[in-house]
């Protein structure tokens, strides 16, 4: 059975080009806790998403 991602939360924040560095750090640090962090850009904001695998 394929792994599924369950969206836990999203939060929009003002655009910050360094947010990708934080998301990468969180993914590397919390992978063993079955958490995945994502970031996307929408309407001039950054949307951070947290998923559980």
Distance between the termini: 13 Å
Q: Which regions have little confidence, pLDDT < 50, spanning 5+ residues? A: none
Order of helices and strands: EHEE
Number of domains: 1
Shape: flat
Strand arrangement, largest sheet?
1-3-2
Global Rg: 12 Å
Number of DSSP strand runs? 3
**Mean pLDDT, nearest integer?**
94
How much helicity do the residues have?
10-25%
Percent strand equals: over 45%
Describe this structure in words.
By secondary structure, the protein is an alpha+beta fold. It has one domain. It is built from one helix and three strands, in the order βαββ. It has one helix at 19-30; strands at residues 6-14, 35-42, 45-52. It has a three-stranded antiparallel beta sheet, covered by helices on one side. Strand 2 (35-42) and strand 3 form a beta hairpin. The protein is flat and about 30 Å long. The mean pLDDT is 94.
Short structural summary:
Helices cover 23% and strands 47% of the residues. With 53 residues, the chain is an alpha+beta fold.
């Amino acid at each position: 059975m394929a792994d599924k991602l369950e969206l836990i939360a999203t939060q929009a924040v003002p655009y910050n080009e360094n947010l990708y560095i934080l998301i990468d750090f969180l993914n590397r640090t919390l992978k063993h806790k079955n958490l995945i962090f994502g970031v996307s850009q929408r309407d001039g904001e950054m949307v951070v998403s947290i998923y559980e695998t």
